[in-house]
Every structure is written in C-alpha cells, then in structure tokens.
Amino acid sequence: MNKIIMYKKDRCPLCEEVESLIDLLELDFSIEREEVDIESDEDLMEKYMFEIPVIIVNGEEMEYRSIDYFSIKKRLH
Prior knowledge:
Layout: E1 2-8, H1 13-25, E2 31-37, H2 42-48, E3 54-57, E4 60-62, H3 69-74
Parallel strand pairs: 1-2
Antiparallel strand pairs: 1-3, 3-4
C-alpha cells in the first residue's frame, strides 16, 4: 500500500488542488492518507509556512513546486 502524508493548513487553495489530485489517484492505487495541519505545530509552521502544500509519497518529500498528477503517480506502486 502507498502512503501519502500531506502537510497543509486551512484556507489553502493549493492544498485543495493537491487533495483533488490524490482523490483521482485513489481510483487506481491503494493509498493510505495522512493529513497534518501545520498550524497545530509551531515547528511545522516554521518549516513549511511558505511552502505548503508539501507531501511525502512513500517516504519521498515533494514540495509544492514539483507536485502534479504525473509526478505523484511516478512515485506510487
């Protein structure tokens, strides 16, 4: 099973777009999802404040500039 961890915050349009991409990928792949609200953790807020969404796909971190349907799909099995 694939695992995707998504670091996000409320009122984030890019986060919503990435969630939609993951929804589409779930049609073809088995994916365990975990969503982490960076606003609930001061360290995460400092680390990712200007770079969300960030996702970790099967242990590989992807930042928002490199996230698209095909780049996520390449990391799934």
